[in-house]
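R.M. (postdoc): so does anyone remember the format we settled on? I'll just put the structure tokens first.
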């Protein structure tokens, strides 16, 4: 540690011995650098503050009815895209900066400068307060650029919703037209398929297997009914054979054919009443009475014929003689036999029909399921297309409502807190900082040069340094004689060094005062000059 400290002291002594190079370096660098800093043109800054109000009163009213976008995300996106090339070109045209460019390279330089110098800063906190600033040598140009950027920012943010809504409407219309064509095609395919296989498609009774099971169940029920009816028919025929075909008048309660009901009984009874009424008023030769008697005779003849026909068809199945007994028991049994025979014939027809259906369904066991599967696929595709089509129609209505809401009101309200102004005082460059930086550069260059030269041509400043350099121990030191004038010479160099630095410090103070107090120094000088 002591060695490091001693080496540091030796370096400082070497720099001090070569201090004249510090004077040379500072006088060569500082005045020139300060002059350059003083000649730098003034920079004026213009800025504007705006507040974006995203609390729209329509937002809660339209919730669930329209597509709600996040205004904060939209604003942040517009901030990022504000410095895009189309917007920068628009700003350059609005401020006439593009006129200053005579070549494409100069125009590109203007666009690059706008991109680098336009600053958009959002203040910290929950409020959407933004600051747009720009610096230029011309205060009016700085103001115009900020105003143009502010205009572009607001217009792009407000117009973005409308552009998005128009794009959404165009997209939805194209998709609706496409799905409408697909829906029409699906309907045509489904209609053609149903027309082709109309006799084989599932109906209200279900699909193939359900229809086959129903047909088999119906066939079993009909066969069972047929068996029951045939049994009842046999029983009725057996009873008919056991009943005597003839009966005495004492056993037969039916004395005449009038006790048998026919379809002419009611008409005959009505006509007899009418005839009785006419005979009370007219003689038998009256036309109405004659006509009534004629019609009554005709109806009785028809009734007799119907009774004869009925009794003639109640013969046995084996070709026995006709049973024309007027015994009501025999007549009832004959009617039952006739009814059972009719039911048997009907049930046989139905049984044959269902047998044909079952056989036909069993023969189509490999065809109908494929057709039903294809029908299910067609219906599924049709339903999916229809559902998507209806969803697109709903989305179109939602988008239209949202567009109308955006056209009538704005979700984002911009309020300019501080409009841009032309600055009266320059905000840059930071000359005081540059003055100090030039001074440090000049002083650092002089110190570095002195250290370098002291190492290139070293001078021993202590016994330890001399002993280390020569490797010979030093036993004593002999001081220089005052008559040699070395002390006066070193003292003179020190005074020159101090005076030089003081002069530079005075020059630095003058430069800094000129720009620190423009009203006290610059204004009088401008009036004098």
């Amino acid at each position: 540690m002591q060695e490091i400290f001693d080496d540091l002291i030796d370096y400082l002594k070497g720099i001090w011995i070569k201090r004249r190079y510090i004077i040379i370096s500072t006088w060569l660098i500082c005045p020139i650098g300060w002059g350059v800093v003083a000649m730098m043109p003034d920079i004026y800054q213009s800025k504007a503050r705006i507040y974006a109000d995203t609390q729209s009163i329509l937002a809660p009213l339209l919730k669930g009815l329209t597509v709600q976008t996040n205004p904060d995300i939209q604003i942040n996106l517009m901030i990022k895209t504000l410095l895009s090339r189309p917007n920068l070109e628009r700003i350059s045209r609005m401020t006439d900066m593009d006129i200053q460019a005579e070549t494409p390279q100069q125009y590109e330089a203007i666009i690059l400068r706008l991109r680098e110098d336009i600053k958009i800063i959002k203040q910290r906190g929950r409020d959407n307060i933004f600051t747009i600033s720009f610096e230029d040598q011309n205060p009016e140009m700085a103001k115009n650029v900020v105003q143009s950027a502010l205009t572009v920012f607001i217009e792009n943010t407000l117009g973005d919703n409308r552009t998005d809504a128009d794009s959404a409407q165009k997209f939805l219309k194209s998709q609706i037209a496409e799905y409408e064509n697909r829906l029409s095609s699906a309907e045509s395919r489904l209609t053609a398929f149903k027309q082709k296989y109309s006799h084989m498609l599932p109906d209200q009774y279900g699909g193939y297997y359900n229809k086959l099971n129903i047909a088999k169940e119906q066939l079993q029920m009909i066969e069972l009914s047929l068996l029951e009816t045939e049994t009842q028919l046999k029983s009725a025929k057996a009873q008919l054979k056991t009943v005597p075909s003839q009966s005495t008048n004492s056993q037969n309660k039916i004395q005449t054919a009038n006790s048998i009901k026919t379809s002419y009984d009611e008409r005959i009874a009505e006509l007899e009443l009418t005839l009785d009424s006419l005979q009370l008023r007219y003689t038998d030769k009256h036309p109405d009475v004659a006509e009534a008697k004629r019609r009554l005779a005709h109806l009785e003849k028809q009734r007799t014929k119907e009774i004869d026909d009925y009794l003639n068809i109640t013969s046995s199945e084996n070709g026995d003689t006709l049973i024309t007994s007027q015994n009501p028991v025999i007549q009832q049994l004959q009617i039952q036999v006739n009814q059972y025979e009719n039911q048997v014939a009907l049930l046989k027809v139905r049984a044959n029909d269902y047998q044909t259906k079952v056989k036909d369904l069993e023969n189509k066991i490999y065809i109908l399921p494929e057709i039903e599967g294809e029908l299910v696929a067609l219906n599924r595709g049709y339903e999916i297309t229809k559902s998507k089509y209806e969803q697109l129609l709903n989305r179109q209505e939602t988008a239209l409502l949202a567009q109308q809401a955006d056209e009538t009101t704005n979700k984002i309200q911009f309020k300019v807190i501080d409009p841009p102004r032309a600055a009266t005082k320059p905000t840059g460059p930071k000359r005081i900082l540059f003055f100090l930086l030039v001074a440090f550069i000049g002083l650092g260059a002089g110190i570095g040069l002195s250290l370098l030269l002291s190492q290139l041509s070293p001078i021993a400043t202590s016994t330890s340094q001399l002993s280390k350099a020569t490797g010979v121990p030093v036993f004593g030191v002999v001081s220089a004689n005052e008559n040699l004038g070395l002390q006066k010479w070193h003292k003179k160099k020190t005074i020159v060094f101090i005076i030089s630095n003081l002069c530079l410090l005075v020059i630095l103070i003058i430069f800094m005062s000129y720009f620190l107090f423009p009203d006290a120094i610059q204004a009088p000088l401008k009036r004098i000059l």
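R.M.: ...and that's the designed sequence above, right after the tokens. Also worth knowing: Residues 139-196 form the longest helix (58 residues). The chain has two domains: 2-167+406-474+504-519, 208-374.
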